[in-house]
Amino acid sequence: MRKQLWLAMALALSVAAVHGLHRQPLSANTSARIFGAFAFWDPGPDQGTLRIDAIMKPGNPHGITTGDWSMHGGHYYSNKAPGSTLLAVPALGIVRATEKIFSKNPDGPDRLPRRAHAVSLLTTTLLLAFAAARLFLRRMEQGWLARDAILPPIALCFGTLLFPFGTSFWGHPLAASFLLLALMARDDRAAGFLSGLAFLTEYLAGISLLGFLLQRRSRAYLIGLTPPVLGMALFHHLAFGNPLTPAFALTNPVYLERSILEAFGHFEWIRLWHLTLGPYRGLFWFCPVLLLAAGALRKNLVFPAVVALYVAAVASFNGWHGGYSTGPRYLIVAIPYLVLSLPKWSDLSPMGRWVSTAAGTLSVLIAWISTITGVLSPTPLPNPLRDSVVPNLLDPRAPHTFWLVEGRWGVYASAAVLLAATGFLLVAAKRINVPGRRHRGRPQKKPLPSRFSSLFF
């Protein structure tokens, strides 16, 4: 069992290293989220608040602005759920304190992208790395061989949209990590608290709360859910004057038709194709490995119901395509349900193993290309992978996100790091053969992962 714990730690470190070596440029979405934390710490009229007034002024010194705002009382706020910004506040405080100790010029011209990347590393990346390690340990506790248990975390972190979006400060990967931990939590109160954090981070994750209420003891679950929900209500009251007024209700009018209700009343059947299998924003087009979850979804009707609700909700939104991004970013919160439904590789037929290996390899390749070229993609392109992502990969003049090495060698270095990390994990897992047993066949006492995870849940 100690080997399993070491492998889980190696998995977490590998995820943190691979994701941390890629840095996406700031977008309108990520800027709106993180500048609230900058305002909290920077001296000025907005210090101690989460306002983004500073970047809404023409010619602001930051050199960046955003259209993802909400306005109330003459002040601008992010039009996102507040959880990601709230997490960024202590993370940015740690970054600033560290820079004062080790950096000669902490307020240099590169402070904005440097600090934004550091905040993303301390929040999004570390949370995803921990969730991946917990998923591996959970599968080992269920009797999976290590070579089988290591595959779902690898698929999650390197073969889905969590790879490209997890290398920047988007709210979707944070919410997905919280949901994955909530789905694996043994205690109903822990499940409530973690799913509440997902809701606090991404409004759309509120759909998952319905599924948890069907599967968990309602009273204990609601006890855990209460603190994050109260925190969200308090933020809404302080920022927008009403605890029941979400940020998107006061959003930039350019994103609305005529009212907030009309923005969510445009369901079209063709969008189901585009969001699932189509090349424009298809989840399974960008992450074909998730198709392998179809068989297991029949065993747990709550999981497919929640995924279907996510797809239907996004298809009813006028911004269902997610704007200038690669893949259906709004469906990232549904990925934990599909990853938890992936079958055990050793239980598949020989043909099934070949198919799953091919799907997993293709998914990792697509996710890596989307990461190294950047998640921002022109909206009108009918097939972003063909028309934008792959051409950018082949263009030696196109920028890349591997910040450690400049030029074309950065692409090669990124591929080498990813291959080294996944190869090491697969080889190390293959050396661990029998789960839950000591060398002489004596059953273990209480599993170590249970004691380990109890520190957090």
Beta-strand portion reads under 5%
Query: What's the helical proportion of residues?
Result: 55-70%
H-E string? HHHEEHHHHHHHHHHHHHHHHHH
Helix/strand class: mainly alpha
Question: What does the model show?
Answer:
- The protein is built from 21 helices and two strands.
- The protein is mainly α.
- Helix content is 58%, strand content 2%.
- The protein has a two-stranded antiparallel ribbon.
- The two termini are 20 Å apart.
- A hairpin with a 2-residue loop joins strand 1 and strand 2.
- The chain folds into two domains: 2-27 and 113-430, no CATH class; 28-112, no CATH class.
Can I get a quick summary?
This protein has helices spanning about 1-20, 30-40, 55, 85-100, 110-140, 145-150, 150-160, 160-165, 170-185, 190-200, 205-215, 220-240, 270-275, 285, 295, 300-315, 335-340, 350-375, 385-395, 410-430, 450-455; strands spanning about 70, 75-80. It is an all-alpha fold and about 450 residues long.
